[in-house]
Design goal:
Layout lengths: L8 H17 L11 H4 L4 H17 L6 H38 L19 H5 L18 H22 L3 H22 L11 H22 L7 H18 L8 H13 L4 H6 L2 H8 L1 H27 L4 E2 L9 E2 L4 H38 L17
Antiparallel strand pairs: 1-2
Helix pairs in contact: 1-3, 1-12, 1-13, 3-6, 3-8, 3-10, 4-6, 4-13, 4-14, 6-7, 6-8, 7-8, 8-10, 9-10, 13-14
């Protein structure tokens, strides 16, 4: 049951747009442009990435992981896809913390939190480096705080690889299917029964969240594959699906209904996988494809921009001018709230933030993400060029 090499360009476009929405979610600026249910609950789009990842990873690898060599190649490819940029951003955060320590020691500047203290204590560097920051080893997200989802995805990839091997290397397809369903169900139950933050599980139950969403995406692909020979969904569904997704995120994001997010996103992924309507044609245009190609970089760099290129300069200006534009964060791992006192000034700050995120992501994509991926695959794998796919973060595959 080896899969073809179809690239779901429309889903790639949606991945880029959702990465921008997550970036806006983490920008704590007082503004009517951000004070709406869609942005306040945009953390749920991480679950879209998980579903999309399960869909496309299944398309690319289901039926191919039949022996130790294939499993090893898969693991190297997944690691090369996500780790280099993650490590580079972690190094950048640590470098800034070192500069803070030097400035504080020399009495040049003081900071609301001392350098290398929680959540960015030195003891959290190694867990982040080895993709263990999603196992509840800390009391909050640390360093590049969205990276918990990248860690969760990597370990979920390995679970998927094991199931694929059971199905095709061991010839136990029904057992693998049953086990995949049990894993998705167990992930949901862990979130419902144990997660103190509900669906917004990150550093503690993030792996359960990822397993749930990923395997919902896995079974969505298998359903799509069985039904793709039938007539594609009515083009009008392409107009209805985004409206329903936006309404769901806006209204359900802060309620127990948020546990249904992967199923809702799975419906949208299924519809747009057919690429049959006007919305698909729009998402296949160059701007959205540009966003999709750089969505992993957008996702990974935006926290650095929020903390160090937006928040930090504003704090320094506060000290120099005596003005007050920021307030204490709502949680140890949250950025400080920024209130510039004028809606249009806030809109300008939001526009500048988006521009900086996109520019920074373009640079990291060109200088770090793709070159490092090629280098690792050349040195440690078979020398083949990396496949290009659309599976996401969170968006990363």
């Amino acid at each position: 049951m080896a899969q073809g090499q179809q690239r779901f360009a429309v889903l790639d476009g949606w991945r880029g747009l959702c990465a921008l929405l997550v970036a806006l979610y983490h920008l704590n600026v007082v503004s009517p442009f951000l004070d709406n249910g869609l942005i306040r609950h945009a953390y749920l789009f991480v679950d879209f990435f998980f579903v999309l990842s399960g869909f496309v990873i299944t398309h690319t690898y289901w039926g191919k992981l039949t022996d130790a060599g294939a499993l090893g190649d898969f693991t190297v490819r997944r690691f090369a896809r996500i780790w280099p940029l993650h490590a580079a951003l972690l190094a950048a955060f640590v470098a800034v913390e070192c500069l803070k320590a030097i400035a504080a020691a020399k009495g040049v500047l003081s900071f609301p939190t001392a350098p290398f203290t929680a959540p960015n204590a030195t003891g959290t560097i190694f867990p982040n480096l080895v993709l263990a920051q999603t196992f509840g080893l800390t009391d909050a997200t640390s360093w590049n705080f969205p990276s918990w989802s990248i860690a969760a995805e990597f370990w979920t990839y390995l679970v998927f690889a094991l199931l694929a091997w059971i199905a095709f290397g061991g010839g136990r397809k029904r057992a693998a299917t049953l086990l995949g369903g049990l894993i998705a169900t167990a992930g949901l139950l862990v979130l419902v029964l144990r997660s103190p933050h509900g669906m917004d599980a990150t550093y503690d139950y993030g792996l359960a969240r990822c397993l749930y969403g990923f395997f919902v995406g896995h079974f969505t692909y298998r359903l799509w594959r069985r039904t793709r020979a039938l007539h594609a969904p009515a083009p009008s569904l392409e107009l209805i699906a985004p409206v329903l997704v936006v309404a769901f995120v806006a209204m359900a994001g802060g309620t127990p209904a948020a546990f249904c997010a992967p199923v809702v996103f799975a419906g949208a992924v299924y519809i747009f996988a057919f690429e049959s309507g006007a919305v698909s044609r729009a998402m296949g245009t160059r701007p959205f494809q540009w966003l999709g190609a750089r969505s992993y970089s957008i996702y990974m760099v935006h926290a650095f921009v929020v903390v160090n290129l937006i928040g930090r300069p504003i704090q320094i200006l506060e000290k120099l001018t005596g003005a007050t534009w920021t307030s204490a964060p709502s949680a140890p791992d949250a950025p400080r709230m920024i209130d510039v006192g004028d809606d249009w000034a806030a809109a300008g700050l939001i526009a500048a933030y988006i521009a900086i995120v996109l520019a920074t992501a373009a640079l990291t994509y060109r200088l770090i993400e793709m070159p490092a991926q090629r280098l690792l695959l050349k040195r440690w794998s078979t020398g083949a060029q990396p496949r290009r796919s659309v599976s996401g973060p969170a968006p990363a595959a």
